[in-house]
Amino acid sequence: MPKLSAPHSFVHGVATQINQHNVVVRLRDDETTSTSTTTTSTTTIPFDYLVIATGADYRSPITPTESESSYGKRHNSWREQAARLKSASSVLVLGGGAVGTELAAEIVCHFPNKQMTIVDGQEHLVPLFPKRTQDHTENWFKERNTKLVLGEVLDKIDGQGCTTKAGDRITADVVFVCFGMKCNTTAVANGDMSATLNSRGSIVVNNYLQVTDFPHVFACGDAMSHPANEIKQAYYAEMNGAAAAGNILSMMRGNPLQKYPESIAGASISPLVYVVSLGRYDGSLGFNNIVLNGSVAALVKWVLEWTKIKQMEERPIGMAVWAFGDAMTFFLSRTLVKPSKL
Asked: Is the pTM of this model over 0.85?
């Protein structure tokens, strides 16, 4: 990626209103003061083009709260949660998607003597992934005496546990809520583009990732709804960002826009790529119709995460690995290992 040559700045704050020509940001001034007093002010930032990549929120502590505005504050929350977890004898994870499954697996791996229970309304864990991944994941937990309560709809949730629609009460010392992801689009709802939100609060975009009726505004990742209906995970959010940036440059140069995901993947359907971690040494790796379970999947995820950090730091090894990996992934998905929908 070329270095920015034009002046640019970083604004640390909370976007409270996103409009078609400007963004209103509430600034925080509690990072440099030695007192407990927190002062706030707002600034309005105009734009010619905008990319909305505000993501989605789970409940705390899965997602940071607004008060956790720095790494130090977030780190303190992690320490507090780690202390609670260490002293607990039982843990309840509500939600058996990728987030809940990986969190539960980490706890089981590091604290094998704690009683773990996972509750989800779906019949299987990680229901968006292929059956071989579901089976391997469920067997991994069963072998470690984890109680799986699947296909049970929840009626009530509190700090001590949950109650199912059937009237069953499940309690634990620590409860993590890992479902109910909400699009982080309150600022859009507060602005003059609120009509672009669907019933889920997701920003509706077209095939070029442009927000409906606002061609100079783009949206990416968890915050938006695209006709491709991809799974919401970091791999696709990064593809979204590259496509949106490319189309903004095309608009500035007067060139035609490129459809997504064709502009990145070279096909109308993106490849299905994922790795579900099951503790330190196990997992499930998927590429379209191919599933690889076991320690190799865990090793691959470690390599992916390590090289991704190096890529973000613009280190040659990270940039080379991901350039080659992305190119091969898209090529194989178009030719030899096609997605099931093709």
From this structure: yes
